[in-house]
Write a structure and sequence with these properties.
Blueprint: H1 7-10, H2 13-30, E1 33-35, E2 46-48, E3 51-52, E4 56-58, H3 60-81, H4 84-95, H5 99-114, E5 120-133, E6 139-147, H6 160-170, H7 174-177, H8 185-200, E7 206-210, H9 218-230, E8 235-238, H10 240-246, E9 248-249, E10 255-257, E11 260-267, H11 279-290, E12 294-296, H12 299-304, H13 307-313, H14 318-322, H15 327-334, E13 340-341, H16 347-358, E14 363-367, E15 376-377, H17 379-388, E16 397-401, E17 408-413, E18 421-437, E19 440-455, E20 469-471, E21 473-475
Bound molecules: adenosine-5'-diphosphate and magnesium ion.
Length: about 475
């Protein structure tokens, strides 16, 4: 992305140090907070969540494109989740070799067999993009992935615009400060949860945040909880362990945990194999899926967010299956796809292997994992593919074109890290929220955005992984 801050400011170390001090205080004042690594389960000592000193220039047109396509992505995810034949076919090769996806798929099949007990669907997702740099200097919006499970930073990103506006004012860049958009995903996500809670229709029932063991990023979730409490909607935070110990279904399949009826389960944990520490944890997931509670996401929406599904969607004709009479929607979604390639057994997969081995730097190799740090880049792609290319093991992965955004300079403010000018890449996310009851889509919105920025030395990893930091787009 283009350079925003003039070079004389960027290199004025005294000024930068002053601005960084102001910025950190402002982040603390505005509530851009994170618990510290040493005490992830206590709020006695907290710090600011890592963020950029300056906002990053983003072309207005691509920013608006990302927001505009989001409701279509919501619809797409929802339609996929309701299409068992598609999911079965898309994931067949993957579940033969990937135990985690296979396990999720078995839950999905069991729910289909028993029949879904709840017709209310709540989807909160985030579609992530990078701006691929074209040769003529323009950039095009390319999707990295869509997160249908525990998409985070809707809370903290709601507090970022004030912080960056303040920094720019102090830096005497008043006009720039006015080019930072308002952003409040927390309110929109909460609005969707509230809608699902209302439709569930019991005053006594609560919204359960199913949270991680280590809760460093608790404030991100607290913003959503606060929004719900403002509407007099009670929320509780529970771990898998609580559900294992006390979770039950009554004869109407109403879910109770620690004696309370649960209207909505909002999963912020459960997307990684290591989140399932025992058979009981898997039983707890199944119990919640079988229940009358509204699940965010339900198991089929979870599967709709896999990287294998993303790759299958990019095949010719597949989007048309979901939007048969809306070529303009197909076009709008497809315009955001990067090249995605199958590694299924057969000539097409063989061709993908050959292509990747010949030019590994052009691609990213992705297993079916979430949470950062799992993707494979560069020469390591060759190492991995050489090992699996003759066997079905290769179908656990997909191959994707590497997106090449322009870099820009910034300062990444992170607790205990030295202040130094850093070459950075950014990733733009759009938050989607929808609620459906039966055939009736009662809410379908784009509720905000997220900009994350990281040093260009890192190929992978998000904010929680300690690589990326929170940012704001400066529309240009
Ligand atoms: P995860 O589910 O672990 O978040 P992602 O697909 O989002 O997996 O990839 C993690 C990170 O790797 C992204 O945030 C991005 O920085 C980088 N990345 C992923 N895919 C690409 C790609 N096609 N081109 C360039 N960078 C990528
Ligand atoms: Mg990601």
């Amino acid at each position: 992305m283009a350079q925003g801050i003039p070079q004389d400011v960027m290199m004025n170390t005294t000024l930068i140090q002053e601005l960084a001090d102001v910025a950190k205080d402002e982040a603390l004042l505005k509530g851009v907070l994170m618990r510290i690594q040493e005490t992830p389960n206590s709020s006695e000592l907290v710090s600011y969540a890592p963020f950029t000193l300056f906002p990053t220039p983003v072309p207005k047109a691509v920013f608006q494109q990302a927001l505009a396509v989001q409701t279509h992505y919501n619809t797409l995810v929802d339609k996929i989740s309701q299409d068992p034949d598609f999911l079965q076919e898309a994931l067949a090769s993957t579940i033969a070799v990937d135990d985690f996806t296979a396990r999720l798929f078995r839950i999905h099949q069991q729910i289909l067999k028993e029949g879904r007990s709840q017709s209310i669907v709540l989807g909160l997702n985030r579609s992530d993009y990078m701006l691929d740099q074209r040769e003529d200097g323009s950039s095009s919006l390319k999707q990295i992935e869509i997160n249908t499970f525990a998409a985070s930073f809707g809370g903290l990103s709601s507090r970022m615009p004030d912080v960056h506006r303040h920094i720019l004012r102090v830096a005497n860049r008043l006009q720039d400060s006015q080019r930072i958009q308002d952003n409040n995903p927390a309110a929109g996500l909460a609005r969707a949860i509230a809608k699902a809670w209302e439709l569930y229709g019991s005053e006594r029932a609560v919204v359960m945040f199913l949270v991680e063991e280590s809760q460093r990023n608790i404030f991100d979730q607290r913003y959503i909880e606060s929004e719900l409490w403002k509407r007099n909607i009670p929320t509780v935070r529970k771990r898998f362990g609580n559900v294992c110990k006390t979770g039950t279904l009554d004869q109407d399949k109403r879910l109770f945990v620690d004696g309370q009826e649960i209207a909505v389960v909002y999963f912020r944990n459960g997307y990684m194999p290591q989140n399932y520490t025992s058979e009981q944890t898997w039983d707890a997931r199944l119990l919640m899926e079988r229940s009358l509670a509204v699940k965010c996401p339900d198991i089929s929406t979870h599967l709709a967010g896999t990287k294998k599904v993303q790759q299958v969607l990019a095949k010719p004709g597949v989007l048309e299956r979901f939007f048969p009479d809306q070529p303009e929607v197909v076009e709008q979604i497809r315009a955001t796809f990067a090249g995605l390639y199958t590694l299924d057994m057969g000539p097409e997969g063989d061709q993908t292997v050959a292509m990747a081995l010949a030019a590994p730097d052009r691609f990213v190799l992705k297993p079916q994992r979430e949470g950062g740090g799992n993707n494979i880049y560069g020469s390591e792609i060759c190492d991995v593919l050489q090992g699996v290319k003759e066997s079905a093991e290769r179908t656990a992965y997909i191959l994707m074109d590497k997106i090449r955004p322009a870099s820009g300079q910034n300062y990444l403010l992170r607790r205990d890290a030295p202040l130094k000018v850093t070459n950075c890449l950014s990733e733009l996310g759009a938050f989607g929220a929808y609620v459906r009851r039966g055939e009736d889509m009662v809410m379908n919105e784009c509720v905000g955005h997220l900009l994350r920025t990281k040093s260009s030395e890192h190929s992978d990893g998000g904010v929680a992984a300690g690589v990326a930091v929170l940012d704001d787009p400066l529309l240009v």
